Amino acid sequence: MIAIRSLLISLVLFASATIGAAPLTPGLIVAISDGDTITLLTQDKQQLKIRLVGIDTPEKKQAYGSKAREHLASRIFKQDVEVDLRKKDQYGRHLGVIYLSGVDINQLMIQDGYAWFYKHYAKEQPKEEALRYAKAEQDARAKQKGLWADPNPVPPWDFRKETKEQARAAKATNSYRF
Questions:
Q1: Where are the domains of the chain?
Q2: Which member of 11, 16, 88, 93 has the greatest number of CB atoms within 10 A?
């Protein structure tokens, strides 16, 4: 009797977890913009710009920016993947998790040392996923993989902020010329 009750509870929990899950979107990766943005060609021939959710990679002009892009391309360019689309960001890009043969590519980018876990948006992720991403970053740091081999890696959000401040300062300096 207890075994049947446990089985029924397990089935109900599994069913409720899968009912809310959105179907994955299959497609072909046709472009890699940078280490965390790709273009997916869907089966109905739509091109979707997708930002990999939960991660942030170095900017193109930043140390490891090109390497992050190259690493992502080596993993998924011209590959058939499935994407868990979550929502759109303020730039109109879809946010999603890329799966290649069931492997979470977003997590792999962190694990291989080419991305930070984007903690700022962790509350928007399923808790289990955020914990996996945090652990992947911790492991990559400990093993000094990829960008973690650098003695002082600069997070991309700090790099972007610094770049904006420098641009503002340059503009202010130029506007006061006579």
A1: 22-168
A2: 93
What tokens does 170 get?
Answer: 């340059």
Beta bridge partners, 87, equal: 95
Q: Does domain 22-168 have CATH number 3.40.50.10490?
A: no
Decide if 29 contacts 78 (C-beta within 8 A): yes
Instruction: Identify residue 46 by its one-letter amino acid code.
Output: Q
Residues of the chain with confidence (pLDDT) below 50: 5-20
Rounded CA-CA distance 29/77 in Å is 5
Distance CA 114, CA 141 (A): 11
By three-state DSSP, how is residue 144 classified?
A: coil
Instruction: Give me the active site residues, please.
Output: 51, 59, 93
Residue 165, both tokens: 């401040």
pTM of the model: 0.82
